[in-house]
Amino acid sequence: MSYHQKRFSLFFFIPIMFLSLIFILLLTAHSQNIPGDFFPGGVYDLQIPSPANFLGITVGDRPLSYEEILRYFQELDRISEKTKLIEFGKTYEGRSLHYLIVSAEANIQKLEEIRSTLSLLADPRYFPSGSKPDDMIASTPAVAWMMYGIHGDELSGPDAAVQLAYQLVAGEDSVTQRIRRELVVCIHPMENPDGRQHFLAQLEQWKGRINSYDYQSIQHTGVWPSGRGNHYHFDLNRDWFSLVNPESQARVKEILSWHPQLIVDAHEMGPMDTHLFSPAREPINPHIPKELIEWSNTFARDQAKALDKFGWSYYTKEWLEDWYPGYGSSWPMLISSVGILYEQAGVEGTSIKRRDGSILSYPEAVQHQFISSMANLNTAAKNRQTMLKEFYLLRQKSISVKGNLSRKTFYILPGDNHSRIQRLIHTLQLQGIEVERTLTNATVSNLHSYWHRSVISKTVPQGTFVVRSNQPLGALINSILEFDPRMKSEFLHEERLQLLKEKETKIYDVTAWSLPLAYALEIYWSPTDPPLKTEKVAFVFDKRIHHPVTPATFGYIFDYSDDSAIQTLVKLLENDYRVRSSRKNFKIQSREFKKGSLLIRVNENSQGLHSALQKIVDSTGTTIYSVQTALAESGPDLGGNEFILLEKPRLAILNGPEVSTTNFSALRYLLDQEMQIRHSILLSSYITNFDLRKYNVFILPSCWGGAETYRRVFQKPDLEKLKNWVEAGGTLIALENAAAFLADSASHFLQTKLFHQSFKDSDLYRKFLKNVNQRQQVKIDSLEIWEGQRTTRDTTTIKALSREQIAWLQKQDELNRLFSPIGAILRIVLDEDHWVSYGIGKEIPVLINSSQAYLAMDPVVVPAGFSDASNLRLSGLLWPEARNRWANTAYLTVERIGKGQVILIAGDPFFRAYFHGSGRLLINCILLAPGMGTSPPVPW
Predict the structure, then answer these.
(1) CA pair distance 659, 15, nearest whole angstrom
(2) CA gyration radius for the chain?
(3) Spans of all domains in the chain
(4) What is the rounded CA–CA span in Å between residue 464 and residue 890?
(5) Is the CB of residue 524 less than 8 Å from the CB of residue 514?
(6) CB 100 within 8 A of CB 85
(7) 276-321, pLDDT tens digit by residue?
(8) Which of 80, 89, 157, 809 would disulfide-bridge 266, Cβ 3.0–4.6 Å?
(9) Fold for domain 651-769+800-932?
(10) Smallest Cα–Cα separation from 472: which of 922, 120, 934, 881?
(11) Are 921 and 864 in contact (CB under 8 A)?
């Protein structure tokens, strides 16, 4: 054969061979080995497009957007019989929440049957007669719920979720096949899509052609508030049992419908760290079953082996605790699931230079999350039957009379605030907790109250709500409803030594959280479970009750005790109706009203008042009473001066990088969602340019870093401008660290003082408080008043302290501040005659997470003060040093300056938007203060 013939033959034969080979491979080889960094040696189904093939972006090249992740999940759902995509809720900004179910085809085809079987294992009370749990467990897959990106600025988790979805759908290796066969995996890729999109937009804005390895650069940090939280900047990883946000409500409902055995919560932490995962160290919530703690250790051992194959650094415990039940890793343990947390060093989508000189890249961060996820799923798959059996036994123990050693029955008594009771019941039912209601009066013994140490017997009236902990979610019930959980003595010893030696706490979050105290309702618990005639309460608390408003000749009255009155008052003021607040109790038309009740006089308002009221009532559910006369049967007449005309709040709040997002998120949510009141948000960097005369209420939220932070915001001219605004009639409200800034002696603003700056006058403050308390203990001796010759003389003496004594007190206080309350709930005593207490009562629980205590005396008014030392602590850790320091100090002060006033609040009254009891104090300061506490201009 000639050279040209050979060349022609080769030219023809080689392409034919190449095409034939491809054809044979397509026919005979369904799978191929695809090299990659994420899962070395992985074998994949070629019919399933990888993220790179479908999106044109290799996972880890850059953070994927919400739309890209959703499109890829939709494609997997369209193309594969191993998947099912579920939409289950929406965010504040309208983005849909999704999760992708991945399992073997046979499992996908019988998902509802699997879910039904798991429901029976989750609630053994309804187990079919003659059925054996072991038989069900043998043929039922376990469920793993994999969650990523609850903090929007923690980017690697959602991208790892995409890689995990591809691996589980397309993977043909033995590990992946076993996971599909043994498990139903629910991948929730973005718990907080709003926050992620906010943060990605910031990174896009600041990215450059050349990446900066400096983690302090703005292209890594973004700008305040960075996107960590959701639309209102809430930290959704603190919202698991309070369920304030729609993302949390939807997620919890969906998780409970699946009864998962494993729940993974993937996070990021600082870029200089490595990789942390469960188990946690003490303090651990006492209601977390020991069996699940042991499972955490089992999963940790397998996860460590998987990471060791790559030589990666990691650690467990160290700073991770499971005390607070509102995390994505602790809440699952209270519903009998194994909860696991990851914390991966984050690099914000690019690369970071670490202190050791090494470079941590984004693909590495994503891979760490992915490998940990696969390791956990593999452990669950290997232990499927054992985990299902443990899950069943824990639920069975919870309903058992003998097995549930922490058995309690909670009683939520009916009261004046029906709306708040409904809200609490709704929150419990969202978590799958069963609630009953009594049909008759019943006497119950061994009742415990959070107000008193003594045990009492009491007749609980008909309509009392009952929550028994001998139901499948007993551990969750006890954890979120109990009044006062206790930490182990061994941990307290470690904590105290840490404070003294290192000047730092080991406690990661708050030490108290009780829903009964947060809602400030009359609630008791008993260790006994007396026979009560009850009915199950259906899930119907989202319906408004419509109360018809009858026409009135003189006016309309509504009680201020129920939370529904807040929106009603706001709507009236927003529409320029004149509303008055009563300073005293009164009775009219055979009905008694408490001080703070609201009056709308017909002759002070425009025509159409009746129809406007009916429209408002239809939206709020408030009951409004019509009155035909001004003549009261007791108390002040309705036409007199004991009914104070309220001023419409013209409200502004400060915002900016100095402001605490925790405090600001709850405050903004309160104004926008709860009160629905019009307000302006002012950026701190422009404070010099704002015309404050537009507002009559200005709120300074708490800030990061203490009082000195606000000192940088308010330069001397700005502070003078603020003071002039108050003197002209404004109401300035300062929360937590903002209150400390105004009370600081360096601000020269107020007579209220910080505790640690008041030792020169400490004896004076103490004697003044004692004198006031004595004078308020009214004892009338008529003979002494009318006939007596004795004169009253004050014999109190004030001791002047030496410099050495003051220096010693200051040094002692510096030490005592180390033991400041960390999220403890304390008792506040209210002046019931002051408008601050309207609709509340004489005592209220508040959460304190601060080192600042306040002292004040006349002319400063203290309508809300901390109780004495013996009654101060209600829940949480309060060291003796803190108990003595905070006892009898001021929680809320009102100080007149000219025609206006400054209100200081020592804590965050609407903490995480679920402390509705103390939140009422802040609401009163917003709605009542402009009319009740200032001197508004006289209209001409």
Answers:
(1) 68
(2) 32
(3) 81-160+172-399, 409-536, 568-645, 651-769+800-932
(4) 35
(5) no
(6) yes
(7) 999 999 999 999 999 999 999 999 999 999 999 999 999 999 999 9
(8) 157
(9) Rossmann fold (3.40.50)
(10) 120
(11) yes
